[in-house]
Design goal:
Number of domains: 2
CATH class of the largest domain: Alpha Beta
Distance between the termini: 24 Å
Strand content: 5-15%
Radius of gyration: 21 Å
Shape: globular
Oligomer: single chain
Strand order of the largest sheet: 1-9-8-5-4-2-3-14
CATH superfamily of the largest domain: Type I PLP-dependent aspartate aminotransferase-like (Major domain)
């Protein structure tokens, strides 16, 4: 965020209308006296599943739980492994470990920052002893992973595919939204996401009835009938207030994503002559720019310069999961190592890209980056 602007610089006509809708939705829940698994949750579950293009939606407490419940619903646990990436939010790998499985970390494509499908294929072919039963591709920063290739590999190898869509609400490959391509899609509604709650929240989508029924039981103690646990479950529920807020904000998601794409286009036009590497977008994909990620071999110098110019930036993520003390002994490295992952982590810098950002603010940021480039 640009530090000099606390309130939205250019909120637009719908900003106050949206705020009023949210206020009314929250008040309606408070007046109803029903706070857990009521009509707001079921309504949002249906709306969100329909938006993504899946048959079923299940609201859960957060994005980490969404991944964990998805893994458990696939029957994956001790003795199994799950392939994913190391350049991701820690939640992706944490959920695999929480399920009792072993994360096998595959290197990433240098242009999209998503899973390198050739290395996934090599890992599966050369290491059958790992007992990999699922793949969790991460649609990082809002760009879809290569789902066509991943689904083809999964079909050949009889693997579950759980899409980590925490940063990619509304992203598409051709005409299909991410989350509805794999067997299960897992979403976070953390307050910084493209579709965000005013607290924690998450959701799972699927078109598989058996997986839906299992996830539906797992999220509340394994109940099908109240108080009777058919399977060992947990407590992970999206609450009514957050569901009501998300139902309002879902109506604006496409417009917000369109604005993010507009900001990204402006960045691309103004920064194309500089020394930084801009994010790319595959022709068949629609990037939703949860983050606008640039790369520079002098990342830290640029970050410090922009901070002095009152431009806030972020490094997502400064250390890959396989090098973090809490997880490095719990993971395995896929075929080919993780050299691209380690390189990217030293170069990535995320610029402001939130929908309320004005064009003038974007131009200010670009001018400062070009100023730094010419100094």
């Amino acid at each position: 965020m640009i530090e000099k602007t606390f309130l939205p610089a250019n909120p637009g006509a719908n900003y106050h209308a949206r705020k009023n809708e949210i206020d009314n939705a929250v008040l309606s829940v408070l007046n109803s006296g029903w706070y857990i698994l009521g009509n707001n949750v079921s309504s949002f579950e249906n709306s969100f599943a329909r938006y993504i293009g899946a048959t079923y939606g299940i609201g859960v407490a957060n994005g980490t739980d969404a991944l964990l419940l998805a893994i458990k619903a696939c029957g994956i646990g001790s003795g199994d492994a799950v392939a994913t990436v190391s350049h991701t939010a820690i939640a992706t790998v944490a959920a695999i470990v929480m399920a009792g499985a072993v994360p096998v970390l595959i290197d990433i494509d240098e242009s999209t920052f998503t899973m390198n499908v050739d290395l996934l294929r090599d890992t599966l072919r050369k290491h059958p002893e790992l007992h990999i039963r699922a793949v969790i591709p991460v649609h990082l920063y809002g760009h879809p992973a290569d789902m066509n290739a991943i689904m083809s590999i999964a079909q050949e190898q009889n693997l579950f595919v759980i899409e980590d869509c925490a940063q990619a609400h509304g992203a598409r490959i051709n005409h299909r939204k991410v989350g509805a391509i794999g067997h299960i899609g897992a979403f976070s509604f953390y307050p910084t996401k493209n579709l965000s709650a005013l607290g924690d929240g998450g959701a799972i989508v699927t078109s598989d009835q058996n997986l839906f029924e299992r996830i539906h039981m797992l999220r509340q103690y394994g109940w099908r009938e109240r108080y009777i646990s058919e399977i060992a479950g947990m407590n992970s529920r999206l609450d009514e207030i957050q569901a009501a807020i998300l139902q309002v904000k879902l109506k604006y998601l496409d417009a917000d994503n369109s604005r993010r794409r507009g900001i990204a286009k402006l960045y691309g036009e103004k920064l194309s002559t500089g020394s930084i590497i801009l994010p790319s977008e595959k022709r068949e994909c629609q990037h939703v720019y949860h983050q606008f990620t640039i790369r520079s071999s002098q990342r830290d110098e640029l970050k410090n310069f922009l901070a002095k110019e009152k431009v806030g930036t972020a490094v997502l993520y400064p250390q890959p999961v396989h090098l973090q003390p809490g997880y490095k002994s719990m993971v395995l490295h896929g075929e080919g190592g993780l050299t691209v992952t380690e390189k990217i982590c030293t170069e990535i810098l995320c610029l402001p890209v939130y929908p309320e950002l004005s064009n003038d603010d974007v131009l200010y940021i670009c001018d400062k980056i070009l100023q730094w480039h010419h100094e």
